C-alpha cells in the first residue's frame, strides 16, 4: 500500500484519497502492478492452505479460450476494445501458445501465459483507471 501512496489508516485528509487521475503516476502504477502479482502468488501458492492451488492446465487451449478463462477468473473487469485486442494477440504470441505436450516445462509455460493475462487485465492501464 505504501508503494501505491495509500498508507492504510492514514489518508491525506478526512475525505480519503483523491480519485480520478490524481493518484496515477509512474510509482503508483508499478506499486499496483506489484500488488496484483503478489496477490496471484498468494492465491496459487501453498502459502496459506499447505497445498498448491494451480489453475487448470488445458492442453491445446486456443488464445480466445485462455483469454476468456483468465478474464472470468478475475471477475470480468472492464477492458477497452484496444486492450482486449492486444491481450488476445498476446495470448497467441506467448510461448505457451505453441506447446501441446504434458512435459513439466510445457505445463509451466501454459500456467505462466494464464498468470500473465490475469496480471495484465488487473494491473494494466484499464485496471489502473477504472
Overall description:
- The chain is mainly alpha-helical and 130 residues long.
- It contains 5 helices and no strands.
- It has helices at 26-44, 63-73, 81-93, 104-123, 125-129.
- The longest helix is centred in the C-terminal third of the chain and has 20 residues, at 104-123.
Q: Which key features would you list for this structure?
A:
about 130 residues; 5 helices
Strand residue percentage: under 5%
Give the strand tally: 0
- The helix-strand sequence is HHHHH
- Intertermini distance: 18 Å
Rg, rounded, reads 17 Å
Structural class: mainly alpha
- The geometry reads as globular
Q: What would the average pLDDT be, to the nearest integer?
A: 82
Major β-sheet annotation:
none
Short summary:
Helix content is 52%, strand content 0%. The chain contains five helices and no strands.
Describe the protein's topology.
Elements: H1 26-44, H2 63-73, H3 81-93, H4 104-123, H5 125-129
Amino acid at each position: 500500500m505504501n508503494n501505491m501512496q495509500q498508507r492504510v489508516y492514514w489518508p491525506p485528509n478526512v475525505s480519503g484519497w483523491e480519485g480520478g487521475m490524481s493518484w496515477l503516476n509512474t510509482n503508483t502504477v508499478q506499486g499496483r502492478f506489484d500488488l496484483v502479482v503478489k496477490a496471484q502468488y498468494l492465491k496459487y501458492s501453498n502459502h496459506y492452505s499447505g497445498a498448491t492451488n494451480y489453475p487448470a492446465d488445458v492442453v491445446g487451449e486456443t488464445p480466445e479460450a485462455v483469454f476468456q478463462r483468465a478474464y472470468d477468473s478475475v471477475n470480468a473487469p472492464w477492458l477497452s476494445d484496444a486492450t482486449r485486442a492486444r491481450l488476445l494477440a498476446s495470448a497467441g504470441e506467448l510461448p505457451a501458445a505453441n506447446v501441446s505436450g504434458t512435459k513439466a516445462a510445457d505445463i509451466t509455460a501454459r500456467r505462466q501465459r494464464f498468470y500473465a493475462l490475469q496480471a495484465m487485465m488487473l494491473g494494466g492501464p484499464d485496471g489502473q483507471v477504472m
